[in-house]
Amino acid sequence: MRTRVRRERAPRFPFPIPNGWFIVARADEIEPGRTRTLFYFGKDLVLFRGDDGTPYLFDAYCPHLGANLGVGGRVVDGSLRCPFHGWRFDGASGACVEVPYDDNPFIPKTATARSYPVVERNHMIWAWHHLERAEPTYEVPEVAEFHDAEWLPIVVKDFEVATCCQEMAENNVDTPHFKYVHGTPAIPEEEFHTDGPYKRTVGMDGNFVREGFGLGLGVLRVKGYTTFVSSTTPIDEENVHVRWIFTAPRSLGEGAAEKASISFTAGVSQDLPIWENKIFKDPPVLRPSEKAVTEQRRWCQQFYSWPEGDPRRR
After folding, report:
1. Ranges for all domains in the chain classified under CATH 2.102.10.10
2. Which residues partner with 201 through β-bridges?
3. What is the pTM of this model?
4. CA–CA separation, 157 vs 265, rounded Å?
5. Which pick of 63, 239, 244, 310 has the fewest CB atoms within 10 Å?
6. What is the tens place of the pLDDT at every residue in 5-28?
C-alpha cells in the first residue's frame, strides 16, 4: 500500500511537460498493421505500425471532425485511415493523403494529424515530445549490451509515480538523502559533467557511471554487475510512467538481470512516499554542500518551453 496523504490541489510544479525523448511502448507490444491507444504528455495518442513494421505516433483526434483515430482506425501501408469518414493520414508527416468520397484534389494543410518523431531502439519505441514542435536536439543512445550475446535478455520493470521528470532526476544529485532514505552508511561522493543536454555522473571509484540524455532518459552502468536504461515518460504535468530496462553479464548466471532489477526497484520503493507527498520548493533552502541541486535545476531549464501566455514563462 502506497502512502498518499497530500490533499492540496494546487499545481505542484512550476514548469510544463518537458521536451525530450520518452518511451511510449515496448517494441513487442504492437505488431505491424496494428494500432494502440495511449495517454502521455497530457494527450490522447494513437501508436501504430505500418505494414512494414515502422512505428508512428499521432495525436489521437482526426482534424476533420474529431474522431479518435485509435478506435477503429485502420492501418493502410504507412498511413492511418480514420474510422469516421475514411480520411487517410501519412504516418511520417500526419498529412492527409486521401479523402475517398471527394473528387476535389485540393487538401488543405490544416488537414494534418500531429505526428511525433519516433525511433525504435533498445527494444523500445521512443517518441520526441516538444511543446513548440521543434525537431530533436539529441539522439536516443544505442545500448550495445542489449544486443550482445554475452549479456542476458532484458528484464523490464515499469511503474507509475505521482511526480514529474525533474523531481525524479533531482534525486540523483541529492546525495544526503541516500543516507537518510536508503540507509547507506555514508553520503556518496560523485563527479558530475554536463555538455548541453548530456550529463555524466561517475562514482564508486569509476565503477558506477550514469549518463543522462535530456530530462528523463538515462543509461546506468555498474561495472561487472548490470547495465540498465531508464525512461521517465510524462503522463501529464504531475504523473509519470517509469520504465527500467535491465541486462547483466551472462557470466553472473541466468537470473542476474532479474536480481539487479529487484535490487534497484527495492531502492526506489523507498523514494515513492517522498515523491508522491512532497511539493517543489522554489527557491529551496539549501546548505552550501548542496550546490549540485541548484546546478541540476539550472541544467534542467533547457528542456522546457513555455507557450505564450503561460504565467510560468520565464
Report:
1. 20-129
2. 192, 210
3. 0.94
4. 8
5. 310
6. 888 888 899 999 999 999 999 999
